[in-house]
Design goal:
By secondary structure, the protein is an all-alpha fold. It is built from five helices and no strands.
Length: about 120
């Protein structure tokens, strides 16, 4: 499913796996969320460049979370958050990532499912 189409689906279509999402958010894989964010219940070093994710599931709905993860620059053109779902209009992209999103639609759905548990 294309990202633009996924952003138009009803919230019920965002059925990700929160455990997989937790692994993505807290792991050292492609997302590296802990470099910039604090995540409740997570041990080890955490960043403070981005906002804490404590309570994010109570503040934002699934559609808003997905849009921000996929391409936060649509909401804030000055953001430093990487566009995890966008592939066009990027600069200085490592060769292995050119033309591919950092996270698949399914991975983004999993992250959204996890973030919705942070109330």
């Amino acid at each position: 499913m294309k990202l633009a189409a996924a952003l138009l689906l009803p919230i019920a279509a965002y059925a990700g796996n929160p455990e997989n999402g937790r692994a993505i958010v807290t792991g050292n894989g492609e997302a590296t969320c802990l470099l910039c964010h604090r995540v409740p219940g997570t041990r080890g070093p955490q960043g403070d460049i981005g906002p804490s994710l404590a309570g994010v599931g109570a503040r934002l709905g699934a559609a808003e979370l997905k849009a921000r993860i996929a391409d936060a620059s649509r909401n804030n053109p000055d953001t430093v958050m990487p566009p995890y779902g966008r592939t066009q209009g990027l600069y200085q992209v490592a060769a292995r990532y050119r033309g591919k999103p950092l996270l698949s639609d399914e991975q983004i759905d999993d992250v959204v499912a996890f973030l919705l548990t942070l109330r």
